[in-house]
Write a structure and sequence with these properties.
Blueprint lengths: L1 H11 L5 H9 L30 H105 L3 H15 L1 H34 L11 E3 L3 H8 L4 H10 L2 E7 L2 E5 L3 H17 L4 H30 L6 H8 L5 E2 L2 E2 H19 L3 H10 L13 H11 L4 H9 L9 H15 L8 H16 L4 E7 L4 E6 L7 H17 L7 E5 L10
Parallel strand pairs: 7-8
Antiparallel strand pairs: 1-3, 2-3, 4-5, 6-7
Length: about 525
């Protein structure tokens, strides 16, 4: 900045020259008259007198030369200062450049060192990989040699013994079972004790966690639809003159009324639980109102149906919120709300769905599968049971409903495969199937068919009785335990453990049962003498 300030100081004040003075003098206008015309003087020109105080031309020239010399000297000083400042700037820039160059060189050396170390490691890894490849080839070749040697030895043994491998294995196992039954019994007992010791804590955690996540607030209703009457006269009002009231009620609601059950009770029978609920509420309102007639029946049933639609929608919304599913269509939530009055083998569908969904969500979290698909599949797997259509199974009807509401393909697969009607298409569908089986098969969840129950008990006893050393077998505790009594003369103490394992494995392989089945094998030798 000092350089430019000096230059501006030098050239800021200019000495007027002759041309400038002449120009300034030419700008002075001559005198003019009022009309703007220059006055013309006719008088002769005078000679100018010499001014004695006027300096000569040589003096002015000398003054100008001095100014020029001063300006030149000043300019030289400014140039010297500028060169000095430029030299300082240049030296500083060179110093900075040298420092930056040193830093770059240091970074380059560091990078070179790192690259050298990386190359060394790569070389070592390549050597290791090559060594592993060679070892692998050697092991493969050795394994092939061993297999060939094994085949030769087996062939020689079969030729010498005159038995095939399977036959020799059967003979060996039969002899081992005869001669080492005690060791086998001890081995089985030790393994069972070891498994119990290792699994006890884990099992306790699993059971507590399952009970915590599978607990439901909904209590299943196992009672039929029954309406209490205040007195016997009310039954006559329900029937009406010539039965017109009861006929109008049954025709409008689609529900059959059974008045012969009790003098003060009316039983309502219908395959559709929603219709039965509409009839129950309507009949209670009519009894409370006292005006039971065809016209009034129509009005009350219409009003109850509208109110029940709201109840179903609220029930569906609540169930969806409880399991964490949102933004479903209103009509689909109203269908889900019909679970409130639908029972399957005595198990309420809301209770079953809520319980199954919680179990499925927990399993999905543990396995790391898509929780949203499992959640939707568990919620809607039984949606076909509340369909208005009657043709087809509840699985087929559920698929139809899911497609009508444009649900995702994995959710439709969950509905289609939850009874193994189709092969499983993914882990989410298997989780829905497992959760449904756990909820439906737990003790006390459902009423069981009597014939199937008796058949299962008989099959348990038949499996146990097929062994020659068994004297008698009893299926007790509702088929959850089998007690097997052995013939002491035909068995040994070691057979108790071995036979219990055999019966258990056969039950697991051949039967389907809820919960667990305990196999208890008893061998008792009694000595009895009579003293006379």
């Amino acid at each position: 900045m000092s350089l430019f300030s000096n230059l501006s100081t030098l050239f800021g004040t200019e000495v007027p020259n002759r041309e400038t003075r002449a120009k300034n003098s030419s700008n002075v206008s001559p005198k003019s008259d009022a009309t703007g015309k220059e006055k013309v003087r006719n008088r002769p020109k005078r000679r100018r007198r010499k001014n004695p105080n006027r300096k000569p031309i040589s003096a002015v020239a000398v003054t100008n030369q001095e100014v020029v010399r001063e300006a030149t000297a000043r300019a030289r000083e400014i140039l010297v200062e500028a060169k000095a400042e430029a030299l300082s700037i240049r030296s500083k820039a060179e110093k900075d450049a040298q420092e930056d160059l040193k830093k770059v060189e240091q970074q380059q050396r560091s990078l070179d060192d790192k690259l050298n170390r990386v190359e060394q490691k790569l070389t070592i890894l390549e050597q290791k990989e090559e060594n592993l490849s060679n070892e692998k080839q050697k092991l493969t070749q050795r394994q092939q040699d061993i297999e060939e040697q094994k085949k030769k030895v087996i062939a020689e043994l079969e030729e010498v013994s005159g038995l095939t491998t399977e036959e020799a294995k059967d003979v060996l196992f039969s002899r081992l079972e005869e001669t080492m039954s005690r060791q086998l019994s001890v081995f089985i007992r030790e393994k069972e004790e070891q498994a119990h010791a290792e699994a006890e804590e884990k099992v306790r955690d699993i059971l507590v966690d399952a009970m915590k996540h599978g607990a439901t607030d909904e209590v299943p209703e196992y009672t039929v639809s029954v309406v209490e009457l205040p007195n016997e006269e009310t039954k006559g009002k329900i029937i009406g003159k010539a039965g017109r009231n009861i006929n109008a009620f049954e025709r409008r609601t689609g529900v059959d009324l059974d008045l012969d059950m009790s003098p003060t009770e009316v039983r309502l029978s219908c395959f559709d639980p929603v219709r039965r609920e509409v009839a129950r509420r309507s009949l209670e309102k009519l009894i409370k109102d006292g005006r039971i007639q065809p016209t009034r029946i129509e009005e009350v049933v219409d009003k109850v149906e509208k109110d029940l639609d709201k109840v179903l929608l609220e029930a569906g919304k609540k169930l969806c919120q409880d399991v964490g599913v949102y933004n479903l269509p209103v009509e689909l939530m109203r269908l889900i709300g019909r679970f409130k009055y639908r029972f399957s083998y005595g198990q309420n569908l809301i209770s079953h769905t809520l319980e199954e969904t919680k179990i499925g969500i927990k399993i999905a979290h543990e396995l790391g599968v898509d929780v949203n698909i499992v959640k939707m599949g568990c919620l809607l797997h039984d949606i076909g049971k509340v369909s208005d259509e009657v043709e087809g199974s509840h699985v087929e009807l559920g698929i139809t409903i899911a497609k009508r509401f444009n649900l995702p393909k994995p959710v439709i697969d969950c509905i289609a495969q939850h009874h193994e009607d189709e092969p499983f298409s993914g882990p989410e569908q298997m989780v829905v199937y497992i959760a449904d089986a756990i909820s439906g098969a737990r003790p006390g969840a459902r009423y069981e068919n009597y014939e199937g129950y008796v058949k299962r008990l008989q099959q348990l006893e038949e499996i146990a009785m097929q062994y020659p050393e068994v004297r008698q077998a009893y299926a007790i505790q509702a088929g959850r335990e089998v007690r097997v009594l052995l013939e002491p003369e035909k068995s040994k103490d070691n057979d108790v453990t071995v036979l219990s394992v055999k019966i258990r494995d056969e039950i697991k392989e051949k039967m389907t049962y809820p919960g667990t089945v305990t196999v208890t094998v008893i061998r008792e030798l009694r000595g009895q003498k009579i003293a006379k």
